[in-house]
Design goal:
By secondary structure, the protein is an alpha+beta fold. It has a single domain, classed as Phosphatidylinositol 3-kinase Catalytic Subunit, Chain A, domain 1 (Ubiquitin-like (UB roll)), CATH 3.10.20. It is built from 2 helices and 5 strands, in the order ββαββαβ. A 5-stranded mixed sheet has the order 2-1-5-3-4, with no helix packed on it. The longest helix has 10 residues. This is PB1-like domain-containing protein.
């Protein structure tokens, strides 16, 4: 039986993990009817790129339904430990956090 879930990406804000998981600020992007058999680390990376983030400068955390903690997504292994627990119609929360703040650098003027 095929299982389809909604991936709910929280991005553009900050992840607070204590005293409880909370994402402050930012926006939410939903990806509907995602087949759990096709979930992978690279699928997450592609979606994060599509919503406008450089994956080398951010970390994605996943919070499975009915779970009180988040797991950093670093490989397919992190995802495979979760997919067998998902049921049709579940909403899987994902949090995108930035490792570095984007800075603007003025061009350098050289007198040569």
């Amino acid at each position: 039986m095929d299982v389809y879930v909604t991936l709910r990406f929280h991005h553009g804000g900050k992840l607070q993990q204590k005293p409880r998981i909370k994402y402050e600020g930012g926006i939410v992007t939903d990806c509907f009817d995602v087949d759990v058999d096709k979930l992978s680390y690279f699928e997450f990376v592609d979606i994060v790129k599509e919503i406008g983030y450089n994956c080398s400068a951010c970390v994605v955390y996943i919070k499975p339904p009915k779970c009180r903690r988040v797991i950093e997504v670093k490989s397919d292994r992190d995802i495979m430990g979760i997919v067998h627990k998902l049921k049709n119609g579940d909403i899987v929360e994902l949090y995108v956090t930035h490792l570095v703040e984007e800075t603007v650098v003025a061009p350098l003027k050289l007198d040569i």
